[in-house]
Design a protein that fits this description.
By secondary structure, chain A is an alpha/beta fold. Chain A contains 8 helices and 5 strands, in the order H-E-E-E-H-H-H-H-H-E-H-E-H. The longest helix of chain A is centred in the N-terminal third of the chain and has 17 residues. Chain B contains 6 helices and 6 strands. The relative contact order of chain B is 0.12. Classes of the chains: A alpha/beta, B alpha/beta.
């Protein structure tokens, strides 16, 4: 019997180019991802409609958690000298008597949340170990002893002549007085512009956009 | 799946007596590697874009010590908003009356309408100001900027308010296009009224 032979075609597709691109993308993302330093405290920021980009460099970040503990962070990747400048000013201004190694150790701390009296003790320790422990927070609520004023002043002097952003990162459930005390500390240093760190609030954004276009 | 194809068997017969060398396939199964690759892509894509923080600008006024330098606002265009305990919002228009009769309470959903209505009311009362309108036209800004220039919202958070409340009310200013607002300390008289209202409500529930 004559039979018609159907040519068998391979079902294999050459996926090499596809895979090449996939790995290229993978490489890109691995390179581009910058891992956040681990958070010492958990802070859940409130939502907001505005979606401006956050300045990541040349900034100081003042954070407060749900129990109103206040922390101070210096964001200066390009110029590590700023860390030394700030801690030096705090050291001489407050007579803390820090040693050279303690001053150098300051850079290893991402968030500092101790009263000035406890700073020497904190800096004498290994940052990796000490950061995992609970810090009491910078005292701000007592208006006669708002120690954040000193930190802001030191930062302001260290960044003199450059643009310095003040980021305020607060937990949604913290009470208002902590926020007010931070504003007071900044105001005492004659700084009036701040950035409040928030997460994007999806539903409200559309409403904001319509209101904005209606107004034009 | 993804594999390297190097030809392999061609199926052509060679002459008799020609020994065929056994060909081993050079194909490598790359499926597991590709799987892992995509898994990593997914991971990095998610970590890279999700939960990006944004920022809300806040400008505070300078503390003015000299009475002469203070900016005067028209009483009729002022809306005072106070943030109390448990997300309750208190407000009054203009000046607080002695007996506190214009002191009202609402929540964060209700305050939006109150702001919108007050803004409309102030804009409705607007008498054309050619000087201001000329200035806006020159700066290429909408003329409505003149109409609502008397509208001022004063925000007074109490110590019972949360930070979220504060950001929410600032957000409300952005949503409703309130251009002039200020955050100030609450007066004792107002705080007492809030306390009284809270006690009254508590008694009412019982």
């Amino acid at each position: 019997m004559p039979s018609v032979k159907i040519a068998r075609k391979s079902t294999d597709t050459d996926m090499t180019p596809f895979v090449d691109i996939a790995f290229l993308i993978l490489t890109f993302f691995i390179m581009a991802t910058k891992f956040k330093p681990p958070d010492v405290v958990e802070i859940k920021t409130p939502g907001s409609v505005l979606s401006q980009k956050l300045p990541q460099d040349n900034a100081v970040m003042i954070s407060f958690d749900s129990s109103s503990r206040v922390f101070f962070t210096i964001l200066s990747e390009k110029d590590p000298q700023k860390f030394t400048d700030i801690i030096n000013e705090i050291n001489t201004g407050q007579n803390l008597g820090l040693t050279q190694s303690e001053i150098a150790n300051f850079r290893n701390y991402y968030m500092v949340g101790v009263p000035l009296s406890g700073l020497k003790q904190l800096l004498a320790r290994d940052a990796k170990v000490a950061e995992k422990e609970r810090q009491p927070g910078i005292p701000v609520l007592d208006s006669t002893n708002n120690q954040l004023v000193w930190w802001v002043r030191a930062a302001k002097n260290a960044f003199a002549g450059e643009k310095l952003n003040y980021l305020i990162k607060g937990d949604a459930n913290s009470k208002y007085p902590a926020f007010e005390a931070i504003i007071v500390a900044l105001k005492k240093n004659e700084e009036y512009k701040y950035n409040l760190i928030t997460t994007k609030d999806g539903g409200e954004v559309s409403l904001y956009e319509t209101n904005k276009s209606n107004n034009k | 799946m993804a594999s390297i194809d190097t030809g392999g068997d061609s199926g052509q017969k060679k002459g008799p007596g020609v020994k065929k060398a056994k060909k081993l396939s050079t194909r490598v199964d790359m499926t597991p590697m590709v799987d892992l690759g995509f898994l990593l892509i997914t991971f990095f894509v998610f970590t890279a874009t999700m939960n990006e923080p944004t920022t809300l600008d806040l400008n505070m006024p300078k503390d003015i010590k000299d009475q002469k330098e203070q900016t005067e606002v028209k009483e009729s265009g002022v809306l005072s908003v106070m943030l109390g305990k448990d997300d309750v919002v208190y407000y009054y228009e203009g000046k607080l009356k002695e007996d506190g009769s214009n002191f009202k309470s609402t929540d964060f959903k209700g305050i939006r309408d109150i702001i919108v209505n007050k803004r409309k009311e102030v804009m409705g009362r607007y008498v054309r100001d050619p000087e201001c309108e000329a200035k806006m036209a020159k700066d290429k800004k909408p003329l409505s900027n003149c109409a609502d220039k008397d509208f001022v919202v004063i925000i007074k958070p109490t110590k019972d308010a949360t930070y979220k409340n504060t950001v929410d009310i600032l957000d409300e200013m952005t949503i409703n296009q309130v251009r002039t607002y200020a955050m100030v300390k609450i007066f004792d008289q107002e705080y007492e009224l809030i306390k009284k209202t809270e006690e009254f409500n508590k008694a009412g529930i019982k």
